[in-house]
Amino acid sequence: MKKLGTIFLLAFFANFVWEHLHAPLYLHYQGEAISPFILFRAALFDAAFITVLGLLFLRVKFFREHLWLALVIGVAFAIGLERFALAGGRWAYNPSMPVIPFLGTGLTPTIQLGLLSYLIFVLVIKGKNLPS
After folding, report:
1. Is the pLDDT score of 42 beyond 60?
2. What is the pairing mode between strands 99-100 and 26-29?
3. Tens of pLDDT along 52-89?
4. Cα–Cα distance between 79 and 124 in angstroms, integer?
5. Which long-range contacts (CB under 8 A, 24 or more apart) does 32-40 make?
């Protein structure tokens, strides 16, 4: 349980920073300005996703032994989320957002959940000096 809590806290902090850093690459959220509260909620959602994914990686030996799958699962989820949100006008990219050809999704949101999940799981699951 301590490891799951650690995953959540690290995921929230990392995503909170990430959301603030790439917020200028968006035009709006649901037609409104992107506020600090919106960024907080986004970081909370992302942390919840990573924590739920962390359950799988903590409890299933196959996933613990193949942490790179967190990168694949996170990126796949992010692609689906981005495509859904863009199609529905939930948010829109600023012209400065680097967009991945063929996917039509922004680079920073596409890699965010996969990269941060992977790094956090390596730190928490494979880390030697963290709480068990």
Report:
1. yes
2. unpaired
3. 999 999 999 999 999 999 999 999 999 999 999 999 98
4. 25
5. 40/16
